[in-house]
Amino acid sequence: MGDAAAECERFLAGVLGEPAVDALTQAMLNIAIAPIDLSRASWPLLARLRDQALGALRADLARCTERERQAFRVGMPWHLQDERADLASAILELGTRPRYFAVPASVFGPPAPDSRVLLYIPSLKDRVDDDGLIRCAGLDAQHQGLFIGSYAVHYHQFLRRAFSGNINDTLLRVLIKAGTRPGNSFRIAIDDHRILLRHEFEHFIEEDFWWGPKLTSAWLDDPNTGGCTVHADPEGDDSLRGYSKFFAYWRMDSEGNKVVQMEELVTPSAEEFCGYRVLRYLHSIRDIESRAFIHCDGAVRAYDAVGFSKRQAENMPAGTQAAKYRKVFRVDGSISTAEWSDIVAKWFRHNYLAGEYLESLAAG
Hints:
single chain, 2 domains, eight-stranded antiparallel beta sheet, 12 helices, 12 strands
């Protein structure tokens, strides 16, 4: 499918021109309409750009021979190979995939001063902390986006399902509820490439629910429990789930708080992003006297080929330094055990080893 997508992208650019393809892809990113849903999009600007592209493609395909038209079907996904399917729509869907799902190298850095979002909302520059997170006090942070004045801003790429799908809104619900409670603070990473008018933002619904088990404080607040726990997939690197291990390392700090670091390990066959294997990571601090967590932040660690090979051979704390690191959320204040359990389960969404570890704490 990769070669077919690249060929369709080249054909698309040849017919429409690079600026038109970029404008279409940016409109798709702004409204979060994936290529497979492009034909059903009703957002006015996106629908206009899509229809213009389809018109140009159909006119160009009409000048091709039947053999040339059939050649486009080769290598396409099965649902696009049917000759009854509109070829122009199939080329548009497949040809926009490379740019839509491309992860820019800037995804590991803070919002750029000349990025689209900061140019439209310059006041956000004063809200960016040292980790590149936005301080959300006084802002309208909702579970599917950050709304500022007349604009809607998307959350960071790494807060999306599989880093490319819809926003993990179930996680954001818990983070926002905990982070915006009086006395607490909430910070979040944004996608500084996507912005649209608030009234044009479209909410989505996904029937997928993840939650953590009810944990007891007996193990969590015992200063003598700690160390590293590893949950591994018995199927190893052949697992279709894509995750081979989950690490949790607990220790007491110098202030008498209990600190935990968690990180997943993907299989060697897992998809790369910008040439890296990207692992989700979580760091939390628990006040064992008040029996509540007082800090929680989530990040991704990106390893190159050499670093990932070394990381595979280690437990926690890992000695291998990640090539790239990007924090994507932070909550400070008082976080209940139930909220923390939900954050862990939803941050490591689809990694069943994380849920298995939480179940072990509940049982303990």
